[in-house]
Specification:
Blueprint (H helix, E strand, L loop, with lengths): L3 H5 L48 H14 L2 E9 L20 E7 L1 E3 L5 E10 L9 E15 L4 E16 L3 E6 L2 E6 L4 E18 L2 E10 L8 E11 L6
Antiparallel strand pairs: 1-2, 1-11, 2-4, 3-4, 4-5, 5-6, 6-9, 7-8, 9-10, 10-11
Length: 247
């Protein structure tokens, strides 16, 4: 755009030429708008970690899980007769039909099926150590069982399974006089321990006296595949179940 001063500041040419107006461009600098300052970013708040607060229900939940596990367990006390009718107990040839070997058994009972009539019952039994009729030797017996049970009626359960018997026999290294034919002879008792393991076929029945108490009779067949060395153990026991902890 030409200013008013540019129009009137003309230069006359010679007298022969007409009077002309020459536009002089405006060389003044064009003001440039200054950029508006950008707003500074607002600080972002860092979220604080939520503190873990233990509620009153957490100890109750832990206690509930413990009670649920405990309710599947059982403990039994009873007596085991091992090698029934196979061990001679006097010079007259009488064999053992009963022996006093008290034990304690710990079990875990997993019921399954829609009606819970079936169950899987693994257990571990510790028999009180004894001298097995000989003061120079000591015998320690323990055994495991992996049995399946089925309630044929409400209070009667049949059991079938397999397991292992562990026999640990140790001697004191002394001498012992034993009968040898028509007389006696002196024998030396080894001073070391020996462990033997026998597999077993387990079968038995249990009668529920109460919902949490049963009377059990179990038979264990050892070395089933060997007709000559096959032996029988049997146990009678009272079992207490912790299932009443959960209604």
């Amino acid at each position: 755009m030409l200013s008013l001063a540019n129009i009137f500041c003309n230069v006359y040419s010679n007298s022969e030429g007409p009077l002309t107006a020459t536009a002089i461009p405006d060389t003044s600098p064009i003001p440039t708008p200054s950029p508006s300052p950008s707003p500074s970013p607002s600080p972002v708040a860092t979220p604080m970690p939520t503190p873990i607060v233990q509620t009153e229900d957490q100890p109750l939940q832990q206690q509930s899980r413990f009670i649920k596990i405990l309710s599947k367990m059982s403990v039994a006390v009873g007596n085991l007769t091992h090698y029934a009718n196979a061990v001679q107990i006097n010079y007259g040839g009488k064999k053992n039909t009963f022996a006093w070997n008290p034990f304690i058994k710990f079990g875990y009972n997993l019921g399954f099926g829609e009606t819970k009539k079936w169950s899987f019952n693994p257990s571990y039994t510790l028999v009180y150590p004894d001298h097995n009729g000989d003061t120079h030797t000591k015998q320690f017996i323990s055994f495991t069982s992996f049995d399946f049970g089925y309630f044929v009626v409400d209070n009667l359960q049949c059991k079938l399974g397999a397991g292992f018997f562990f026999y640990n026999v140790s001697g004191d290294g002394e001498t012992e006089d034993l009968r040898n034919g028509g007389s006696t002879s002196t024998f030396y008792v080894p001073k070391y321990s020996k462990v033997s393991i026998n597999s077993s076929l387990d079968m038995g029945v249990g009668y529920r006296i109460l919902s949490f108490l049963s009377a059990d009779l179990d038979v264990y067949i050892l070395s089933l595949n060997r007709e000559v060395s096959k032996q029988y153990n049997y146990a009678m026991s009272i079992t207490y179940y912790f299932n009443h902890l959960i209604k």
